[in-house]
Amino acid sequence: MDYNALIRPELAPMVPYAPGLRASDVRERSGQEHIRKLSSNENPYGPFPSALAGMRTVLPHLNVYSDGAARALRRRLGEHLGIPADNIVVSNGSNELLRIITQAVLGPGDECVYAWPSFVVYPIVTQLMGAISVRVPLAEGEVHDLPAMLAAITERTKLVFLCNPNNPTGTIYGKAAFEDFLAAVPEHVLVVVDEAYFEYVVNDDFPNGLDYFDAERPIAVLRTFSKIYSLAGARIGYGIMPEPLVAAVNKVREPFNVNTIAQVGAFYSLADEAEVERRRQENQEQKSYLYSCFDRLGISYVPSETNFVYLHTEKPVEVFEALLAKGIIVRDFGTSPALRVGIGTPEDTDATVSAIEAAVAELGAF
Ligand SMILES: Cc1ncc(COP(=O)(O)O)c(C=O)c1O
């Protein structure tokens, strides 16, 4: 049987998304009992208490399909965001929305422009459709080079992904740069602004994608409950987009794409703004503490608007292994001279600082 003849040729060069190591993988390997998983930008605290209580109530009713149109949640999100519910799509993680938007928009030979390095799912979903990735290197300071991205747009460009803040570097582009970009981007291009880390941002110059949403121009803003709301395992995200795009996405998505537990968890999470603020503040404090450690040890890092910090190192494999031996999982990027360290609890930060100090003592300067 020739499976190569069976399977679409677009899939041949693709590499499946590689999730970070799980705690259970590392426990045995490191011999450490307490594993700190700082590799997937999750929040260290659990789902909000109101979300947990709500999710428990639906367990006996899982014999019934979820609400395929997520009516209650979309209405609630609409109130929360000040956006009509008809412009909101709920998805099985924002990841799903990245895929179904490309399925709705990209065809073979179309071009999709995105920054690089950026979120690893953009090349995957582009290749899946047989479309062409146009990667624009980040500018100095590891920020999106919006003028260069504009210059990379051609007649064949259908989609631009903007990751703000950017994963893995944690950087943002500012309001003026975004406004110049939007003023010049041609109408035939859909701009997808991926704001997975929106709730962590404290910089006043951050352009909230929704401030530029007028339900007319081809712009979609994606957010998720996986990060500050701690519902990563439930899988729920959402997007705000003009109605014609909502209609297209609704044709592509599965009938009951978001399960009931996730819908209810997200619904109740929105009630607890104080907890969002508490988590944002604590994240800021932990980041500052980590920066002071990096400064003291002469480690080069990129100031971040997210719950992770990108650091430069000529020894990514050695540093990764040294931290792993202490039970700390960070993210490496194959051959890139960099690592991404997630922000966890204050205890996680203390452990990370000690492990990094020990790694410097063992390996010398990074
Ligand atoms: C930039 C970015 N976008 C989207 C996602 C997908 O998140 P989810 O599918 O959990 O909503 C992630 C997850 O890490 C991310 O970093």
Descriptive report:
- This protein has 366 residues and is α/β, with parallel strands linked by helices.
- 39% of the residues lie in helices and 15% in strands.
- The protein has helices at 3-6, 23-30, 49-58, 71-81, 94-105, 121-128, 146-151, 175-184, 243-252, 260-269, 273-297, 316-325, 346-363; strands spanning 36-37, 88-91, 111-116, 132-137, 157-163, 190-194, 219-224, 237-240, 301-302, 308-312, 328-329, 331-332, 338-342.
- The strands form three sheets. It has a seven-stranded mixed β-sheet, sandwiched between helices. A four-stranded antiparallel β-sheet has the order 9-10-13-12, covered by helices on one side.
- Strand 5 (157-163), helix 8 (175-184) and strand 6 (190-194) form a beta-alpha-beta unit.
- The model has no long low-confidence stretch (mean pLDDT 96).
- Pyridoxal-5'-phosphate (PLP) binds at residues 41, 93-95, 119, 163, 167, 194, 196, 224, 226, 232, 237.
How do you describe this structure in short?
The chain is of the alpha/beta class and 366 residues long.
Order of helices and strands: HHEHHEHEHEHEHEEEHHHEEHEEEH
According to DSSP, the number of beta strands is 13
Class per helix and strand makeup: alpha/beta
Strand content: 15-25%
Roughly what percent helix?
25-40%
Backbone CA Rg: 21 Å
Which sheet architecture does the biggest sheet show? 7 strands, mixed
Please state the average pLDDT score.
Answer: 96
Q: Which residue ranges are poorly predicted, with pLDDT under 50 across at least 5 consecutive positions?
A: none
First-residue to last-residue Cα separation: 50 Å
Shape descriptor reads globular
Q: What strand line-up does the widest sheet have?
A: 2-8-7-6-5-3-4
| Tally of alpha and pi helices | 13
Bound molecules: pyridoxal-5'-phosphate
Oligomeric state of the chains in view:
single chain
